[in-house]
Design goal:
37% helix, 4 helices, alpha+beta
């Protein structure tokens, strides 16, 4: 009987520690995010780009160089998009299309990348500052490294193609 009481007390002591232990999925996501950060990719949990989705999703950001701003667009996977949106390629639709057409080489790279993205990738976005992948982190670190290299190559192809020209300071106007 004493051993049963001791086992119950020990169980009560260690139970909270077991609840605080990260799940295997959380451990994998932490490892993946750390590998991404070491590769120079910014990782944030941002509000979802999807309509009626109040969750915060992982956003992996490949930052454009300061003098190489990127175009503005948002591309959604068909499963997350309305049929009213303009298709880009099979399985993807524009919510916000870039103002200028992508060069053939960049477009080809982009299409090939989209075909290789994991099924949990729901959106690819570009702003003047960064190329962003919205996904649920299903890949391991090795598979992610290959995808990250493809995303970096796409970012480099899109850099310097902003939809809006950068405003230059007006040095000739008098201040009043």
């Amino acid at each position: 009987m004493v051993w049963l009481i001791i086992a119950a007390v020990v169980g009560l002591v260690f139970a909270p520690a077991m609840w605080l232990r990260p799940s295997p999925r959380e451990q994998r996501a932490t490892t993946l995010r750390e590998a991404a950060r070491q590769a120079g990719i910014q990782v944030r949990l941002d509000p979802s780009p999807l309509h009626q989705d109040d969750r915060r999703r992982p956003a992996y950001r490949w930052v454009y160089p300061p003098r190489g701003r990127g175009p503005d667009f948002l591309l959604l996977r068909d499963a997350e998009a309305s049929d009213a949106l303009k298709p880009f390629i099979e399985g993807w639709r524009w919510r916000k299309e870039p103002l200028h057409a992508l060069p053939a080489a960049v477009r080809g790279r982009f299409e090939a990348l989209l075909a290789r993205l994991p099924a949990d990738a729901v959106a690819v976005e570009s702003s003047a500052e960064a190329l962003i992948l919205w996904w649920d982190e299903s890949l391991g670190t090795e598979a992610f490294a290959a995808m990250a290299a493809d995303m970096a190559e796409l970012r480099d192809g899109l850099a310097g193609r902003p939809d809006r020209p950068e405003r230059q300071p007006d040095l000739g106007s008098p201040r009043g």
